[in-house]
């Protein structure tokens, strides 16, 4: 339908496309994809994201300040970093398994869009009964870059039937 409107000279207002590099525009000399992950440090306390091993999917994020995540509470922990990922990707902030398992610390507010350039903060939730102390430089979360698709939204009267149906949580009996 959007294509038909465009062909008929629709008067739809569109915002200009931001100048964000596309994933396929970043290639090495052999033409192979070499996507970038650009990071700006806002202070000397900022620690560049780093992978713990060559096969790690995530980059460790570190706190730029000392802070406390109160028992049964939450805190926004600054990294003093801004990031840039290619168009067609997004950054996901996930928990570190050790903090989740050992201290009941998990992450909230976890998606960073490709066009966001502001400071990256990590929202940490503490589901334990003990305050959690964070020191400057502590690894607090991991950042994973994923591909994203944004198909057009189409309103319909009905959806296709599936074996899962509309049974709510756990409809397949798993």
Automatic annotation (TrEMBL):
Entry keyword annotation includes Hydrolase: yes
Pathway: Pyrimidine metabolism; dUMP biosynthesis; dUMP from dCTP (dUTP route): step 2/2
Catalytic activity: dUTP + H2O = dUMP + diphosphate + H(+)
Basic and acidic residues compositional bias, start-end: 8-27
Annotated InterPro entries: dUTPase (IPR008181), dUTPase-like (IPR029054), dUTPase-like_sf (IPR036157), dUTPase_trimeric (IPR033704)
UniProt-listed Enzyme Commission number(s): 3.6.1.23
GO terms assigned for molecular function: dUTP diphosphatase activity; magnesium ion binding
GO biological process: dUMP biosynthetic process; dUTP catabolic process
Residue span(s) of domain dUTPase-like: 45-173
UniProt region (Disordered), positions on chain: 1-27
Key words, A-Z: Hydrolase, Magnesium, Metal-binding, Nucleotide metabolism
First-tier enzyme category under EC: hydrolase
Role, per record: Involved in nucleotide metabolism via production of dUMP, the immediate precursor of thymidine nucleotides, and decreases the intracellular concentration of dUTP so that uracil cannot be incorporated into DNA.
Listed NCBIfam families: dut (TIGR00576), PRK00601.1 (NF001862)
Family statement: Belongs to the dUTPase family.
Record's protein name: Deoxyuridine 5'-triphosphate nucleotidohydrolase
Source species: Malus domestica (Apple)
């Amino acid at each position: 339908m959007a294509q038909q409107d465009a062909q008929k000279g629709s008067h739809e207002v569109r915002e200009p496309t931001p100048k964000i590099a596309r994933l396929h525009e970043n290639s090495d000399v052999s033409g192979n994809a070499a996507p970038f992950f650009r990071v700006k440090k806002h202070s000397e306390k900022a620690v560049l994201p780093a992978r713990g091993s060559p096969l790690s999917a995530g980059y460790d994020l570190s706190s730029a300040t000392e802070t406390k995540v109160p028992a049964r509470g939450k805190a926004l922990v600054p990294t003093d970093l801004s990031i840039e990922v290619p168009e067609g990707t997004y950054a996901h902030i996930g928990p570190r398994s050790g903090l989740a398992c050992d201290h009941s610390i998990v992450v909230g507010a976890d998606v960073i869009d490709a066009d966001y350039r502001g400071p990256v903060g990590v929202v940490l939730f503490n589901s334990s009964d003990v305050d959690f102390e964070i020191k400057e430089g502590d690894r607090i979360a991991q950042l994973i870059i994923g591909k994203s698709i944004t198909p057009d939204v189409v309103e319909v009267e009905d959806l296709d039937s599936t074996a899962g149906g509309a049974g709510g949580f756990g409809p397949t009996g798993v």
